[in-house]
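chain below, 527 aa
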Amino acid sequence: MTGNGLLPLCSADGHQFTPNGKVGNHFYSDKYTDASAGWVMTSSILIFFMKAGFLFVEDAFVSEPSQRRMVIITKYLDTCSSAIAFWLFGFAISIGLSPAVLGEDRDYIFWFFRFTFSSNTATIIGGTLIGERRKMKLLAVFIYAFMISSVVHPFVAHQLWSDSGLFSPLKFCNGTVEIVNGTLAIKHKLEQSPSSMFVLDFAGSGAVHLLGGMGGLLLTIFFKVEQWFENCYKSDERINKTMSTAGDQNLEIDLGEQPQEPENFWNWMYNLGTEHIEYAALGVLILWTTWFAFNCGSTESISGGPGDKPGSFKIYHAITGRIALNMVVCAGSGGLMAIVIASLVQLKTGTESINTNEIANGILSCLVAVTGCCAFVTAWVSCGIGLIAVLFYHLGCFIEYKLNLKDTARVVPVHVGSGMLGLLASAFAEDAFLREFYENVCSCQELSLPHEGINTGLQLAHQLTGALFIVAWSIATIGPLFVLLSLTRSSILAKLLCRDRFSEDHWLYKLLGGGALLAVASTSRGG
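prediction:
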């Protein structure tokens, strides 16, 4: 993609294309050959089917019909909301155009491919509060998904994956391929960016998983704060009631039945419960399968750039094969680690069977971690990433346990911890693999990095900077949204501020309580 927002032409058939050229009221692809267009389109359809995997995994953690209906309607709603948001604003921002360009849809196939990434970013949060008595109201789901797909994810995608992005390696490309007189040629040179920093995030460990997981983390934090307010109000209310009925002589105050805490971390994490383990297994297998499309399809090509002879193309399929190999090795090593840990926990706690849901989450953690670096590292590095990803996942669960955060499906440990790991692991990229990928695609004929080869220490600092940028961006954008939704919810905040001054019929009480549809709210119904 060129800096002016136009996609570089790269086609092997004999047609003379122009940007945004129309034939029969349909856009040609300005980016792909026919073979690569078919590859990207097929991958995009499979990536979209990842929604089914997320649905089954989340459904495994609930049992009541009302809760299961809520999981389903949430998936419908965040998908539809993200579709409209990405069409209106998101795609234009992701390719470097003004967000004022409403309904930008040049190159339909590229649009659909980028939409699937944006939509999956928005759907990650769905597993955070499932099974809890608090759920995001439907309007809140719509607003959150709309914001993620219209601004939050597209901005990060632009910075990491566009040649005009702040952290994109594509800014070091020296040539863009376009069609000249019906043949492929390097049309012009790009000036090297003054910034020497670049961040490797091949398929979205950061731009998709870390970003979406941060949304889940912020939601759990706001839920924790709201729960604290609610407990304060209930305690104060019962104290006043006890003191008014029994007088100062009665100092025993009943705060109600408190939930029984698990004995230790392992009992908390590996509690068998009554979840539908077969749904979790089916969901993970669907995600595992479609994840190959997610990562392998991110090459956006099945044929490389122009070869030495006119009309010829470089061999490119080895890169997709290496991606698949790294994914299998990473998930295999991490999956074995998760099984060993679950077996040891079973022996320690004396439970009757192994908690397979935690094995499933361990495998998902591996897939998240390898997503950002699968095109650039060796199989041995991928094997190590899988082992570390499972340990990162358990560390994230331990932090949630200590902070008592409500994260039913373990969204935060899977996506935040492993997403961060995937970004950091990209510092161990092989220079030859990096150049093989970027110099074979049509938009980059020569990668002129600011230093010879990959300096692991320096690149690790760059990767950490990119991760901190994503964390800061998510807090700056998603955080204020949840603050707004929390401030407009009805019950607790309004009662804390108004109960001693106004009746519940007062307009100020109703104003503070009128936004219940927008908020994370207590409900006994599933939606």
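The first helix runs from residue 34 to 48. The first strand starts at residue 22 and ends at 23.
thats it, cya
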